[in-house]
């Protein structure tokens, strides 16, 4: 069974918000209608975004690291937002596991957003329906786009390739291998929602250096230098084999 | 969570309406068992009208929290999984039974039914009333479970939530019934008043229990599980946006901690001891105004209680929105 999802690599995310802006642009200009964008250039701007990037500082100064954290709907395998929707507008597709909202059925009661522990669902205050990341379902199946562009807008926009897209149930896919090899983890596993999106942790690449590797074992002259040349006219071994 | 007044009014109004209906059917049942004198039909029909009025007012209030109220009819669709769907079915069903009950009494059409060995003879209105009681408790449970079924809103996820909804609705309904019955019979006033006092005391116990429980909750989610970084010292530096968003408005009550605490004491005072005092004084001295005041004070207290119930819940998504 296919379960499409994103894998976000926190090791390389630089917090540039390219995924945020490309997602907002795609979902504003696409067939699903615009996303609310209130007071964009004034004081107190607000709006509906499917994907947001937060920033955290880990550790105590001066031993700190900045972690940029993009978060969108995690397309849970056991989504808590689906059974609570009274109209059935919130549903999980069987063919690819994407959780979607039917904007024609949604009554905007906010119950699904209460049910999501990650805060992935937002109401569009202009259209008055609940909206969330669609995993660019209108891009990934669009035959008019070239094959390489049939990916979510955020994945294409990321300059550091921090976002990967694929089928997490397929062990050979890029995302499954990334999760397996780099220790990918889901968020808030204690609630049993089994999110399909995974995050790859911060990793440092280190090698172990041994003391005796730093000095040459066979160094009779105890210095790093060229070995002494013998008399240039005297025969040496290489004469017999060189031509 | 951000308390929505439309939902606060919905739950308090229908709670009072449900409690009032329970009081009426209790009175009719007691009358049939011979414990009390049978009242005239307009006692029950006017009571049902008052109850129905409260239920309709609650239903109208609830439409204000929907983005698309014209599609509200769709919300009965997912009754297999959603408690909100079940409530949307139970509420009109209950309202219809209240209407039928009131209508039967108004038309004074009350034939005897059954009368077999298995089913003793009874009045049609009492039968309708019993069906109403079943639907009433179903509605209380559905309303409470809407909040209690969300397992990571730990403050709500307890059987005490639907129990509190039931007991608070019943106590406000019986207090209203006490004030209502003063127009008809002293006996009924005494019956309803006694039950109102008992129910208010029971509600005080269970609501205090849930307050104590909520004080001792250990939240299972932390910033560590929320972002998956295993370090003891994590601080949010940015939400990624400078303005507010749905996530900063919908999940937080927007008031200071001191305000929250004061609302707790206000509702503890207005919903329990004050109405008990007013009921006691009103019943012993037979003063109608005091009984009406008891209902009003208790209702205001319940609005504060419902506000506090919503405001106290801590949604795990708030972990992602600690600083601008």
TrEMBL record, chain A:
**Spans of biased composition, class Basic and acidic residues?**
212-232
Q: Which InterPro entries match?
A: 4Fe4S_Fe-S-bd, 4Fe4S_Fe_S_CS, ET_IronSulfur_Cluster-Binding
From the UniProt entry, list the residue stretches annotated as the region Disordered: 212-243
* Catalytic class of the enzyme: oxidoreductase
Q: Please give one Pfam family short name.
A: Fer4_11
Tell me, what is one Gene Ontology molecular-function annotation carried by this entry? Answer: oxidoreductase activity
Q: What is its EC number?
A: 1.8.5.3
Which keywords annotate this record? 4Fe-4S, Iron, Iron-sulfur, Metal-binding, Oxidoreductase
Q: Which residues does the UniProt record annotate as the domain 4Fe-4S ferredoxin-type?
A: 4-34, 64-95, 97-126
What is the official name of this protein in its record?
Anaerobic dimethyl sulfoxide reductase chain B, iron-sulfur binding subunit
What is the organism field in this record?
A: hydrothermal vent metagenome
Q: What is the lineage of its organism?
A: unclassified sequences, metagenomes, ecological metagenomes
